[in-house]
Structures are given as structure tokens and as C-alpha cells.
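Problem 12. The chain below contains 261 residues. Write out its predicted structure in C-alpha cell notation.
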Amino acid sequence: MIGSANLNIMQKAARKAGRSLVKDFREVENLQVSMKGAGDFVSKADIAAEAILKEDLMGARPTYGWIAEEGGEIEGEDPTRRWIVDPLDGTTNFLHGLPHWAISIALEHKGKIVAGVIYDAAKDEMFIAEKGAGAWMNERRIRVSGRHRMIESIFATGLPFGGRSDLPATLQDLARIMPTCAGVRRWGSAALDMAYVAAGRYEGFWERRLNAWDVAAGIIIVKEAGGFVQAIDPEAHILSDGEVICANEPIFDTFAKVIRG
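Solution.
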């Protein structure tokens, strides 16, 4: 795929930050004996990756706005364009030495996501999409799954941790969805869950209480792969309200009805 200048900038920045994170990831196993040591190390790795992304993205487009997990928000001279960045989605996996985490970069224009990159550096899988140009993974066009029966479908979600208030709602979701499908997965990275829906690996994904940087890139990648993306509450806004449901077209209505109760 030959993308726009912005998409090329995004991919180069993701690969550069990915190299830094992979190097740090190799050190995590040595730190598992000390939970505090490992946690501090991963926090520094996260911040270092964000610094790389900020330097490259804002250096190339200094008038754009910026919002990211670690560094907060910057109002750009150009109020219509904004980078939305998660330097390490799947921090807990990273901390535990599990190779399932990603860098997520989205470009927002006039309130709409127009380009997205999700880079799984541990597996060297780069998921990208740009409005009107389809979705791709490592130069291969990707499409959502063609399955149309719930009982043959696999779904992904996030499970609340640490006693979060949305645990009861998620348990109700699981009680409704699990009898209807082939399985539910919880792999610990919302960005990769959405990328996997786009690639046809999952039929659908849903989760509540997310941040804009968790889902922004995934929104356009799923849409450009032929999938449907909405907020769980049809009246809500995905980026501001932090909830999302997505799936292939044949499954979406039935899946959404189950999750929405």
C-alpha cells in the first residue's frame, strides 16, 4: 500500500518506538523477581516510547494537536487536526513478559479519525488504514471475517480489574454472550482486539471504560476492513465516552443486541 505522507510518518514513528520497546521488553524477564523494579522499568519504557512518538509526529507536523496516555493534551495551531497516541497498549502484558502489546497512533481531522496505525512490535505486525484506502497488515489487504452465525464466532473483550465499577455489567455481558458463541477471549490490548476484528481473527469486540487513545486507530482500521463500529450506547460517542462495539456486518446487529441487552 502506498499511503499518504501522514500515514508514512505514522508508520515510521511506530517502528522507531517499537524498536525501543522491544529492546526494553527483553529486559522485563530479568526484573520479575522485583515487582516494583519491573513496574518502574515498564513505566519508564512507556514514557520513553511516547517521547519518541511525540518527537517524530510533532516534529513532522508541528501545528497539529496532540493527546496521549502519558503526556496529556496539547492544543495545536491547527484546531482541525490532532494526533491520538497510546505508546504502549497492553502495559500489564508487557510487565509480565507476555508478547501481546502494541503502539497505537490515530490522526483525527475535524472530529473524525482519518488514519490509523496499530503496531504489534513483538510480532512485527503493522495494521494500518486510511480513509477510503482500505485496511492493511504488512502490505496485505485485510478484511473482517465472513462468518455470519454467532455460534461459530469468537469475540474479544476486556475484563475489569482491581474491583472496577463496571465489573457487574461485564459479567452480565458474558452471561448473555457466552451461550451464543464459540468463545470469548481476553488478551489485554483493546487496540489489538480491534485490529484482530479487522483482520478476521475475531468476529467482534466490545468493551467499556476505555480512553480515546485505546480505540481511535482501531475505529478506522475496522471500518476500512468492512466492519461496523459503534458505541455500546447508541447515543454515546466512542472517543469521549470510552465504550465501543465492533463486528463484521453479518454478525453486528445480533451481537449488538446481545451486548446491549
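Discussion. Helices lie at 5-28, 35-60, 91-95, 167-177, 190-198, 212-224, 238-241, 249-260. Students who got a different answer should revisit the alignment rule from Section 12.3.
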